[in-house]
Design a protein that fits this description.
By secondary structure, this protein is mainly α. The chain has four helices and five strands. It is globular.
């Protein structure tokens, strides 16, 4: 039997959040702290994950993974997914390229979403955080990435 283990660092407050999950049996996960969870497209979640490489309180988008690292990560993801689904592990360059484009398109959506969220938080939140500054950072990155990402074309 596993103990309840705090395992989520809250980037806004700089401390541990409440218990994100507990494991009572190997392979058993119970989600507890899920206020920012929601159903979304796979490519959105991965794009948001890549955006978060830059951090929250001290954002540095030079840490956003480049095409090579994204390609390696996406290939590994697709291999694991296919193996889990019983489709083998062979992944084509075309599959990686399609997911790369989708992930980066949804990374734009993530910037826009969290920029809007931060504007709302700037008005209503009681948390001591520069939400307005964070909104500016997210919208700036959205407009910086947009021309390059929208120029990407799906392979034939």
């Amino acid at each position: 039997m596993w103990r309840r283990t705090p395992c989520f660092l809250n980037a806004l407050t700089g401390g541990l959040s409440h218990h994100l999950f507990t494991c009572t049996e190997p392979g058993d996960v119970q989600f507890i702290d899920y206020e920012y969870s929601g159903y979304n497209y796979l490519a959105y979640d991965i794009g948001n994950h890549f955006n978060e490489f830059a951090g929250v309180s001290e954002v540095d988008y030079s840490l956003y993974p480049g095409r090579e690292l994204q390609g390696q990560w996406l290939r590994s993801y697709l291999e694991a997914y296919k193996e889990y689904k019983g489709f083998g592990t062979e992944v084509t360059e075309k599959e990686v390229e399609i997911l790369f484009i989708q992930v980066n398109q949804f990374a734009l959506a993530s910037h826009f979403f969290w920029g809007l969220w931060a504007l709302i938080q700037a008005k209503y939140s009681t948390i001591d955080f520069d939400f307005l500054g964070y909104a500016v950072v997210r919208f700036n990155q959205y407009f910086k990435m947009k021309p390059e990402v929208t120029a990407l074309k799906m392979p034939e």
